[in-house]
Protein backbone atom coordinates (compact mmCIF):
# COMPACT_ATOMS: atom_id res chain seq x y z
CA UNK A 1 0.00 0.00 0.00
CA UNK A 2 1.35 3.41 -0.95
CA UNK A 3 2.23 5.67 1.96
CA UNK A 4 1.57 9.39 2.29
CA UNK A 5 4.57 11.72 2.06
CA UNK A 6 3.63 12.84 5.57
CA UNK A 7 4.72 9.36 6.72
CA UNK A 8 8.32 10.30 5.90
CA UNK A 9 10.82 12.78 7.27
CA UNK A 10 14.42 13.71 6.58
CA UNK A 11 17.28 14.47 8.90
CA UNK A 12 20.90 15.56 8.59
CA UNK A 13 23.12 12.64 9.62
CA UNK A 14 26.78 11.56 9.84
CA UNK A 15 28.30 9.44 7.08
CA UNK A 16 27.98 6.31 9.20
CA UNK A 17 24.18 6.55 9.09
CA UNK A 18 23.89 6.30 5.28
CA UNK A 19 26.96 4.31 4.25
CA UNK A 20 25.23 0.90 4.42
CA UNK A 21 22.50 2.11 2.04
CA UNK A 22 25.01 3.64 -0.39
CA UNK A 23 27.47 0.75 -0.21
CA UNK A 24 24.71 -1.74 -1.02
CA UNK A 25 22.37 0.10 -3.38
CA UNK A 26 24.02 3.06 -5.13
CA UNK A 27 24.81 2.35 -8.79
CA UNK A 28 28.50 3.22 -8.25
CA UNK A 29 28.91 0.70 -5.41
CA UNK A 30 31.09 -1.61 -7.52
CA UNK A 31 33.06 1.17 -9.21
CA UNK A 32 33.66 3.77 -6.51
CA UNK A 33 32.30 2.31 -3.31
CA UNK A 34 33.34 5.02 -0.88
CA UNK A 35 31.97 8.55 -0.94
CA UNK A 36 32.85 11.95 0.45
CA UNK A 37 30.84 13.14 3.41
CA UNK A 38 29.31 16.61 3.47
CA UNK A 39 25.80 17.80 4.21
CA UNK A 40 24.28 14.31 4.42
CA UNK A 41 20.50 13.95 4.55
CA UNK A 42 18.71 10.69 5.28
CA UNK A 43 15.13 9.67 4.54
CA UNK A 44 13.12 7.89 7.25
CA UNK A 45 9.65 6.60 7.86
CA UNK A 46 7.91 7.78 10.99
CA UNK A 47 7.03 4.20 11.93
CA UNK A 48 10.03 2.82 13.84
CA UNK A 49 8.92 -0.74 12.98
CA UNK A 50 9.05 -0.02 9.24
CA UNK A 51 12.48 1.57 9.58
CA UNK A 52 13.85 -1.45 11.41
CA UNK A 53 12.52 -3.84 8.76
CA UNK A 54 14.98 -2.62 6.12
CA UNK A 55 17.79 -1.36 8.30
CA UNK A 56 17.47 2.37 8.95
CA UNK A 57 18.00 4.93 6.21
CA UNK A 58 15.60 4.65 3.28
CA UNK A 59 17.32 7.33 1.25
CA UNK A 60 20.51 9.38 1.14
CA UNK A 61 21.20 12.75 -0.43
CA UNK A 62 24.75 14.10 -0.03
CA UNK A 63 25.89 17.63 -0.86
CA UNK A 64 29.64 18.29 -0.95
CA UNK A 65 31.94 21.08 -2.02
CA UNK A 66 32.84 20.99 -5.71
CA UNK A 67 35.57 18.38 -6.29
CA UNK A 68 37.96 20.71 -8.14
CA UNK A 69 37.92 24.49 -8.73
CA UNK A 70 37.90 23.96 -12.49
CA UNK A 71 34.24 22.91 -12.27
CA UNK A 72 33.13 26.36 -11.10
CA UNK A 73 35.52 28.02 -13.52
CA UNK A 74 33.91 26.18 -16.42
CA UNK A 75 30.32 26.46 -15.23
CA UNK A 76 30.35 30.06 -14.00
CA UNK A 77 33.73 31.58 -14.86
CA UNK A 78 34.57 31.93 -11.15
CA UNK A 79 38.11 32.15 -9.78
CA UNK A 80 39.24 29.91 -6.91
CA UNK A 81 38.48 32.54 -4.26
CA UNK A 82 34.98 33.22 -5.64
CA UNK A 83 33.47 29.76 -5.26
CA UNK A 84 31.91 29.88 -1.80
CA UNK A 85 28.33 28.60 -1.62
CA UNK A 86 28.63 26.18 -4.55
CA UNK A 87 27.82 22.52 -3.97
CA UNK A 88 27.67 19.23 -5.80
CA UNK A 89 24.82 16.82 -5.19
CA UNK A 90 27.35 14.00 -5.16
CA UNK A 91 25.32 11.01 -3.99
CA UNK A 92 21.62 10.19 -4.25
CA UNK A 93 20.08 6.84 -3.43
CA UNK A 94 16.68 5.50 -2.40
CA UNK A 95 16.23 2.00 -1.02
CA UNK A 96 14.79 -0.13 -3.89
CA UNK A 97 11.72 -1.27 -1.92
CA UNK A 98 10.84 2.33 -1.07
CA UNK A 99 11.40 3.52 -4.64
CA UNK A 100 9.15 0.78 -6.02
CA UNK A 101 6.32 1.34 -3.56
CA UNK A 102 6.31 5.12 -3.24
CA UNK A 103 5.48 7.29 -6.27
CA UNK A 104 7.73 10.36 -6.72
CA UNK A 105 9.53 9.76 -3.43
CA UNK A 106 12.95 10.59 -4.94
CA UNK A 107 12.01 14.02 -6.29
CA UNK A 108 10.16 14.80 -3.06
CA UNK A 109 13.22 13.81 -1.03
CA UNK A 110 15.68 15.80 -3.15
CA UNK A 111 13.51 18.93 -2.99
CA UNK A 112 13.20 18.64 0.79
CA UNK A 113 16.96 18.04 1.17
CA UNK A 114 17.75 21.14 -0.88
CA UNK A 115 15.44 23.19 1.35
CA UNK A 116 17.23 21.86 4.43
CA UNK A 117 20.62 22.64 2.93
CA UNK A 118 19.57 26.22 2.19
CA UNK A 119 18.40 26.66 5.77
CA UNK A 120 21.75 25.45 7.13
CA UNK A 121 24.16 27.33 4.88
CA UNK A 122 24.42 29.85 2.08
CA UNK A 123 23.76 28.13 -1.25
CA UNK A 124 24.46 29.97 -4.48
CA UNK A 125 24.20 26.99 -6.78
CA UNK A 126 24.12 23.19 -6.95
CA UNK A 127 25.66 21.03 -9.67
CA UNK A 128 24.88 17.37 -10.19
CA UNK A 129 25.93 14.75 -12.71
CA UNK A 130 24.26 11.67 -14.15
CA UNK A 131 26.63 9.02 -15.49
CA UNK A 132 25.49 8.34 -19.08
CA UNK A 133 26.35 4.65 -18.66
CA UNK A 134 23.74 4.32 -15.91
CA UNK A 135 21.03 6.98 -16.18
CA UNK A 136 20.07 10.27 -17.83
CA UNK A 137 19.20 12.30 -14.72
CA UNK A 138 15.42 12.33 -15.12
CA UNK A 139 15.04 12.99 -11.41
CA UNK A 140 17.04 16.23 -11.68
CA UNK A 141 14.75 17.49 -14.43
CA UNK A 142 11.78 16.68 -12.21
CA UNK A 143 13.37 18.82 -9.45
CA UNK A 144 13.83 21.80 -11.82
CA UNK A 145 17.57 21.49 -12.36
CA UNK A 146 18.67 22.95 -15.68
CA UNK A 147 20.17 20.48 -18.14
CA UNK A 148 23.56 21.61 -19.45
CA UNK A 149 24.57 18.84 -21.86
CA UNK A 150 27.29 16.23 -21.59
CA UNK A 151 30.70 16.65 -20.00
CA UNK A 152 33.74 16.78 -22.29
CA UNK A 153 35.16 13.44 -23.50
CA UNK A 154 38.00 12.16 -21.29
CA UNK A 155 40.12 9.04 -20.91
CA UNK A 156 41.46 7.14 -17.90
CA UNK A 157 44.53 4.93 -17.78
CA UNK A 158 44.08 1.32 -16.66
CA UNK A 159 47.05 -0.81 -15.68
CA UNK A 160 47.51 -4.29 -17.14
CA UNK A 161 45.93 -5.85 -14.03
CA UNK A 162 42.73 -3.85 -14.66
CA UNK A 163 43.13 -1.29 -11.87
CA UNK A 164 42.42 2.32 -12.68
CA UNK A 165 45.27 4.82 -12.38
CA UNK A 166 44.46 7.57 -9.89
CA UNK A 167 47.34 10.05 -10.02
CA UNK A 168 51.00 10.46 -10.96
CA UNK A 169 52.88 9.46 -14.09
CA UNK A 170 51.98 6.48 -16.26
CA UNK A 171 54.82 6.69 -18.76
CA UNK A 172 56.43 3.27 -19.20
CA UNK A 173 53.59 1.48 -17.41
CA UNK A 174 51.81 -1.46 -19.02
CA UNK A 175 48.16 -0.78 -19.64
CA UNK A 176 45.78 1.13 -21.85
CA UNK A 177 43.77 4.35 -22.08
CA UNK A 178 40.00 3.85 -22.02
CA UNK A 179 37.18 6.25 -22.76
CA UNK A 180 35.53 7.56 -19.59
CA UNK A 181 31.74 7.56 -19.54
CA UNK A 182 30.43 11.06 -20.13
CA UNK A 183 28.23 12.77 -17.56
CA UNK A 184 24.94 14.58 -18.07
CA UNK A 185 25.37 17.94 -16.30
CA UNK A 186 22.60 19.57 -14.25
CA UNK A 187 22.65 22.92 -12.46
CA UNK A 188 20.31 24.71 -10.05
CA UNK A 189 21.17 28.38 -9.52
CA UNK A 190 19.92 30.49 -6.61
CA UNK A 191 22.31 33.45 -6.91
CA UNK A 192 20.98 35.69 -9.68
CA UNK A 193 24.46 37.16 -10.11
CA UNK A 194 25.82 33.82 -11.34
CA UNK A 195 26.08 33.55 -15.10
CA UNK A 196 25.83 29.98 -16.30
CA UNK A 197 28.37 29.34 -19.07
CA UNK A 198 27.70 25.69 -19.80
Q: What does the model show?
A:
With about 200 residues, the protein is an alpha+beta fold. About 25% of the residues lie in helices and about 30% in strands. The chain contains six helices and nine strands. It has a seven-stranded mixed beta sheet with strand order 1-2-3-4-5-9-6, sandwiched between helices.
Low-confidence stretches: none
Structural class: alpha+beta
The quaternary organization reads as single chain
- The dominant shape is globular
Ends apart, CA distance between termini:
43 Å
Task: Give the helix proportion (percent range).
Answer: 25-40%
Largest beta-sheet details: 7 strands, mixed
**Total count of helical runs of at least 4 residues:** 6
Q: In what range is the share of β-strand residues?
A: 25-35%
What is the radius of gyration computed over CA atoms, rounded to a whole number of angstroms?
18 Å
H/E element sequence: EHEHEHEHHEHEEEE
Q: What is the mean pLDDT?
A: 86
Count of strand segments: 9
- Adjacency order of strands in the biggest sheet: 1-2-3-4-5-9-6
How is this structure best summarized?
The protein is an alpha+beta fold and 198 residues long. It contains six helices and nine strands.
Please tag this protein with its features:
single chain; 198 residues; alpha+beta; 7-stranded mixed beta sheet; two-stranded antiparallel sheet; 6 helices; 26% helix; globular
Topology:
Elements: E1 8-12, H1 15-25, E2 39-45, H2 48-53, E3 59-65, H3 69-76, E4 86-94, H4 96-101, H5 105-120, E5 125-131, H6 138-142, E6 146-150, E7 155-159, E8 175-179, E9 183-189
Parallel strand pairs: 4-5
Antiparallel strand pairs: 1-2, 2-3, 3-4, 5-9, 6-9, 7-8
Amino acid sequence: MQQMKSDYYIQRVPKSEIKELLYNHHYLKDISKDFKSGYNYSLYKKSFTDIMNIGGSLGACVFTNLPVPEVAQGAFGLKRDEQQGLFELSRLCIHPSTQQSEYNITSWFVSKAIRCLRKETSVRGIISYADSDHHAGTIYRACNFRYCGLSEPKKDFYFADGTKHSRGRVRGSEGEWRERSRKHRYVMVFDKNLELLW
